[in-house]
């Protein structure tokens, strides 16, 4: 199971878990408070582990599959920890016209993951955004919140490789 | 029960208040194709095959969730509707990998029957040729995502009739999948009672009994209305 990489046992005295517990208590363990509780959990932990989802399901008396369905439906929630570094490719109209698609393809190939995923070693998360509001730099990318543009596929890969200190051929 | 009168395919028809257009049509022998709909389960208007035209409405409406109303003028079959229905079934066929010749449900499949009835002899869309996994971890049953049409009968029957709610849907759009519990292998599900209701209601060979070979799977559904009828009686205080 691919998702099992993120398993960890919930610790009762984990302050992040306490935030989630407090949110559930405040919402009186109402099943329809699920999304709000998941928001708190996502913000506290940075992602939603299976253990956490299972715990929330039990507390709110909801079926696990239903909780899982909600957690995977909304883009805000992630089931895996975010990578150490993040790279966002803007795929807004201006960037797209100027070749963002090609940059994204190249980066996906170089990193061996698709947009929205994190590498198996947890070092890089690749994402897309629909317009970062800086169209004069199209096509632009951001690496760890630093903006680069106008960018080319090779340049983007170089920057990532330098960041990750991985030899180019291993991508 | 207040009676209402409406027009379906140029015939004046009387119906009871609260009936859906699909129920009224079927009561009067008008056949409207359906896939996600099943008597006894809550209607959800998911497959869109039961679309009908309503005079004055800007677009077709799903008859399974549209209540009949006084004076409605309904068309259940027109060139446009038939074309839409064909297109919908073709899209279903193109999305996953439906290979009848190696399917347990061959010749007993609702999707196959629908396609034949609608005269679909080819698919105008490119097949996605998805190679989705199969979950055979349960002792008696298996799930082949390649044959799933996401009608959600399994989800609905597991929740409303069995009360286990083992199944639900993960993701959205074309990446949606049926999942058991927290997307664990079905065999490790702690909520599943192994009752097999989902298997019997599945319109295709997506959920099937292990050990069945090509064309051997026939589904038995009479239990659904029997269970619901007994529950209705019990709720009224009668002896179930």
Automatic annotation (TrEMBL), chain A:
An example Pfam family from this entry, by short name, is 2Fe-2S_thioredx
What are its cofactors?
[2Fe-2S] cluster
Which sites bind [2Fe-2S] cluster? 90, 95, 131, 135
Q: Which residues cross the membrane?
A: none
Query: Which SUPFAM superfamilies does this one have?
Result: Thioredoxin-like (SSF52833)
GO MF, any single term = metal ion binding
Alphabetized, the UniProt keywords read: 2Fe-2S, Homeobox, Iron, Iron-sulfur, Metal-binding
According to the record, cofactor stoichiometry and binding are noted as:
Binds 1 [2Fe-2S] cluster.
Family, as annotated: Belongs to the complex I 24 kDa subunit family.
Record protein name field:
NAD(P)-dependent nickel-iron dehydrogenase diaphorase component subunit HoxE
TrEMBL record, chain B:
Entry GO terms, CC? membrane
Q: Where does the record place the 4Fe-4S ferredoxin-type domain? A: 139-170, 183-212
Question: What cofactor is this protein dependent on?
Answer: [4Fe-4S] cluster; [2Fe-2S] cluster
| Family annotation (PROSITE patterns) | 2FE2S_FER_2, 4FE4S_FER_1, 4FE4S_FER_2, 4FE4S_HC3
Per the UniProt record, the source organism is: Trichlorobacter thiogenes
Q: Which domain of life is it from?
A: Bacteria
Q: Which PANTHER family match?
A: HYDROGENASE SUBUNIT, PHOTOSYSTEM I IRON-SULFUR CENTER-RELATED
Q: Which family does it belong to?
A: Belongs to the complex I 75 kDa subunit family.
Q: State what protein this is by name.
A: NAD(P)-dependent nickel-iron dehydrogenase diaphorase component subunit HoxU
Query: Where does this protein reside within or beyond the cell?
Result: Membrane
**Which terms does the record give in the GO molecular function aspect?**
2 iron, 2 sulfur cluster binding; 4 iron, 4 sulfur cluster binding; DNA binding; metal ion binding; oxidoreductase activity
Keywords for the protein's UniProt record, in alphabetical order = 2Fe-2S, 4Fe-4S, Homeobox, Iron, Iron-sulfur, Membrane, Metal-binding, NAD, Translocase
Domain 2Fe-2S ferredoxin-type: residue ranges: 2-80
Its primary localisation, in coarse terms, equals membrane
């Amino acid at each position: 199971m691919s998702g099992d990489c993120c398993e960890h046992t919930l610790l009762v005295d984990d302050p992040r878990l306490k935030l989630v517990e407090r949110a559930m208590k405040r919402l009186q363990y109402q099943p329809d408070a699920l999304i709000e509780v998941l928001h708190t959990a996502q913000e506290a932990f940075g992602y939603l582990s299976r253990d956490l989802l299972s715990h929330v399901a039990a507390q709110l008396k909801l079926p696990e599959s239903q909780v899982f369905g909600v957690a995977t439906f909304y883009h805000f929630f992630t089931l895996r920890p975010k990578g150490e570094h993040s790279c966002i490719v803007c795929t807004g109209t201006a960037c797209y016209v100027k070749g963002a698609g090609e940059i994204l393809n190249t980066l996906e190939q170089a990193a061996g993951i698709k947009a929205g995923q994190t590498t198996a070693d947890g070092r890089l998360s690749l994402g897309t955004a629909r317009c970062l509001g800086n169209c004069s730099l199209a096509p632009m990318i951001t690496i760890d919140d630093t903006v680069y543009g106008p960018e080319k596929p090779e340049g983007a890969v170089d920057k990532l490789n330098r960041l990750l200190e991985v030899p180019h051929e291993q991508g | 029960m207040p009676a209402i009168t409406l027009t379906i395919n140029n015939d004046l028809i009387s119906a009871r208040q609260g009936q859906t257009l699909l129920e009224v049509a079927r009561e009067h022998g008008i056949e409207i194709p359906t896939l996600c709909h099943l008597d006894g389960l809550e209607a959800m208007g998911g497959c869109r095959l039961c679309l009908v035209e309503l005079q004055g409405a800007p677009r077709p409406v799903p008859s399974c969730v549209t209540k009949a109303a006084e004076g409605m003028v309904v068309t259940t079959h027109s060139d446009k509707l038939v074309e839409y229905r064909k297109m919908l079934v073709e899209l279903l066929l193109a999305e996953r990998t439906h290979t009848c010749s190696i399917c347990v449900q061959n010749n007993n499949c609702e999707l196959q029957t629908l396609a034949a009835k609608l005269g679909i002899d080819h698919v105008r869309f490119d097949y996605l040729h998805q190679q989705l996994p199969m979950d055979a971890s349960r002792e008696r049953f298996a799930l082949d995502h390649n044959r799933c049409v996401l009608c959600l009968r399994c989800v609905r029957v597991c929740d409303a009739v069995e009360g286990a709610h083992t199944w639900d849907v993960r993701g959205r759009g074309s990446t949606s999948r049926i999942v058991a519990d927290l997307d664990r292998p079905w065999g490790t599900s702690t909520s599943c009672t192994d009752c097999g209701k989902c298997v019997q209601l599945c319109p295709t060979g997506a959920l099937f009994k292990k050990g069945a070979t090509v064309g051997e799977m026939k589904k038995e559904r009479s239990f659904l209305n029997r269970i619901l009828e007994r529950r209705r009686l019990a709720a009224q205080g009668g002896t179930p």
